[in-house]
Each structure stands twice: as C-alpha cells, then as structure tokens.
Specification:
Number of helices: 4
Helix content: 55-70%
Largest sheet: none
Strand content: under 5%
Number of strands: 0
Shape: elongated
Structural class: mainly alpha
C-alpha cells in the first residue's frame, strides 16, 4: 500500500466514524430533525470522538457551528491517529 492510499483509507475511516458521531450529537435533543431512539446507541458507539462536542451541545442546545468546528478538529486528529497507528505499518515505500 502506498503512503497516499494509506492516508486516503485512514481519513475515509475517520470521516465515517466522526461523521456518525457528529450526526448523533446534532440529533440529541427531541426538537432536532433526526432525533430518535437510535441516538443513544450512536452516542455509545462513537463516544471516544464526540464526548467534547456532546458536552458543549449539552450546555448550549442551539449552537451547531461550534459543534461542527470541534468535530472537524476531531476528524483531522482521528485520521492522523488511524494513519499513525495502523496504516503506517503497511506502507511500502
């Protein structure tokens, strides 16, 4: 696997995982568009990447932009960690 492919795979996994966490955090309150019973399962599955944004959303119910910015930073950090932890071992130079 090349370095470029490893980065693409790491950030794709990060996008899917953090994206699910973002959707979950933005659906916590009953007035939110995608609110439902599935939210608590989603929160439990994605808790490592959304505990900061969940805490912020719990304090400020109507703010979406700060949650999106927090989750973007978490996305970048998670993609880098996945690359360093898993895919770097598989890169053939």
């Amino acid at each position: 696997m090349s370095k470029k492919d490893a980065y693409i795979n790491a950030y794709l996994i990060s996008f899917l995982y953090v994206g699910l966490g973002t959707l979950t955090v933005l659906s916590v309150y009953p007035a939110d568009k995608f609110s439902g019973e599935w939210v608590w399962v989603g929160l439990l599955l994605t808790f490592p990447v959304n505990f900061i944004s969940f805490g912020y959303r719990y304090m400020e119910a109507g703010s979406y932009l700060p949650v999106a910015l927090i989750q973007f930073c978490v996305f970048v950090l998670t993609g880098w960690m996945i690359y360093r932890g898993y895919f770097k071992k598989r890169v053939v130079v």
